[in-house]
Design goal:
Layout lengths: L2 H22 L5 E9 L5 E5 L2 E6 L24 E5 L2 E12 L7 E10 L1 H5 L10
Antiparallel strand pairs: 1-2, 1-5, 2-3, 4-5, 5-6
């Protein structure tokens, strides 16, 4: 191996050694299921067995990916949506994305949301009662 070849090999090995720990620290997407609430315009959160996760607050920062969800992600049919304030209210849903700590209720990025039947959340003993 030439001097240039050894240098390139060592440089590549060093770059790989620094890149792998950074990749290991990336959080994988997690699916969280629970009570999805939209009580007023611009306010959205999910409460699951671990806590309440803030997706959007009126006038607050947007969670990455939230505004990119397709309209069908919010397609709760009439029997699976409880109206508490005009058309605003709550339903049962699963949200997939990257989350911070439960204590902070931090959502880092959302990739998917799926509306579920209310019965799925009412039957889950790990969830708190729905608030409306």
């Amino acid at each position: 191996m030439t001097v240039t070849g050894v240098f390139l090999f060592k440089t590549a090995a060093l770059a790989l050694a620094f890149a792998l720990p950074a990749q290991a620290g990336l959080a994988a997407d997690v699916m969280r299921c629970g009570w999805y609430a939209n009580p007023t315009p611009g306010n959205h959160w999910l409460t699951d067995r671990d806590g309440t996760w803030t997706l959007s607050t009126q006038g607050g920062p947007e969670v990455s990916g939230w505004m990119d969800l397709p309209a069908e992600a919010f397609a709760f049919d009439g029997s699976n949506w409880v109206e508490t304030n005009g058309s605003y209210g709550y339903g049962c849903a699963c949200i997939t994305g990257r989350f911070g700590t439960a204590e902070a209720g931090e959502v880092i990025h959302v990739t998917r949301m799926k509306a579920l039947p209310l019965s799925r959340c009412t039957a889950d003993r790990n969830l708190p009662a729905a608030e409306g």
